[in-house]
Amino acid sequence: MTARRSRIGLILTGGTIDSLGLSRLDLGWYIEAGLKLPAADLLARVPELDAIADVEQVPFRRLPSHALASSDWLDLLRLLETLLEQDGYDAVVVTHGTNTLEETAYFLHLALKTNKPVVLTGAMRPASAVSADGYLNLINAVRVAAEPASHGRGCLVVMNDTIFDARHVTKASTYRVEAFDGRDVGPLGFADADGRVVYYHRADRTERAGGEFALAGLEVLPRVDVVVSYVGADGAMIRAAAAAGARGIVSAGTGAGRPTPAEDDAFDEIHRDSGVLMCLCSRVGSGRSVRSPGLARRGFVAGDNLQPWKARVLLSLALTKTAEPDAVQRLFDTF
Ligand code: ASP
User: 66 C-alpha to center of ligand 1: Å?
Assistant: First the structure.
């Protein structure tokens, strides 16, 4: 008996993978040129996909990933829910700009309730470049999406033959093809040269968090800002974020998560006066920020080993349901 071919949805959200440069060596200015492949061309340029699965492109808006807003995330989430829960797709591949790919991956990872594979990929070189990496990244993403062992692993990111989990993956190089990194835990596996998808370990924290948030009918997520600490930082950015309507602030603190004394004063003031919730993370890039008794007393939440911009995603989702620090800390300890 032959195995049924997977039916995979393909959503293009923009970024380098379907951008065009002004020449085959335009590896840097193409974003300014704003030239894109016609919407159907990326798929048409990779006929090899037909040997792997039935890939059907589903329309969505295409933007540079640094131009996305939380309303785009919510629309993308609803489209994925429709494709996977109602339209019977076995998996979905999302192409995405690499600048914020990890944030979208973590948002979808947290908000989706499905066990089916959702795989994000992108490219470091435009579709017109010599040695463009996007075509093989797309093929590998489809291989991973069609692989039965990819079920139940949460959202996955495939770049440069390497499979990462959505929680840990982060962009670690501005121009190298080997741009992504799994920080504290490394990659999960590879889509390798023989066409096989091989996993070597399973990420923890892949339980579906979707039920923890109140997203129905929401058009934008609660505002959460990130404030980076540095020598001599005062409380101006923190007070400005609160004045702009932030309901949460993530501190990218020094070391294991230390704001300056002036920032601490500002945090305590806006928490007391406006109930803004603070999450302490680190600007270091690896390792945990932990919740000391003093932080718990002051109503701070600790971001574990999340990068500050990923803690921002979880805090924003959490705030759709609660601003109670211990309840939010439980989410950070679980997801
Ligand atoms: N340089 C980015 C990319 O790799 C542009 C973006 O994120 O949209 O796709």
Answer: 7
**pLDDT band per the 50, 70, 90 thresholds, residue 1:** low
Catalytic residue selected from 13, 16, 95, 100:
16
CATH 3.40.50.1170 location in the chain:
7-199
Fold entry, domain 222-334: Rossmann fold (3.40.50)
pLDDT band at 2 (very low <50, low <70, confident <90, very high): low
Task: Please name the amino acid found at residue 239.
Answer: R
Tell me, yes or no, if 16 is annotated catalytic: yes
Q: Considering Cα of 33, then 38, then 39, then 44, what sign does the dihedral take?
A: negative
- Residue 14 token pair: 């923009």
CATH superfamily of the 7-199 domain? L-asparaginase, N-terminal domain (3.40.50.1170)
- As for ligand 1, residues whose beta carbon falls within 6 Å of it are 14-16, 31, 64-66, 97-99, 122, 124
Local structure of residue 84 (DSSP, 8 states): I
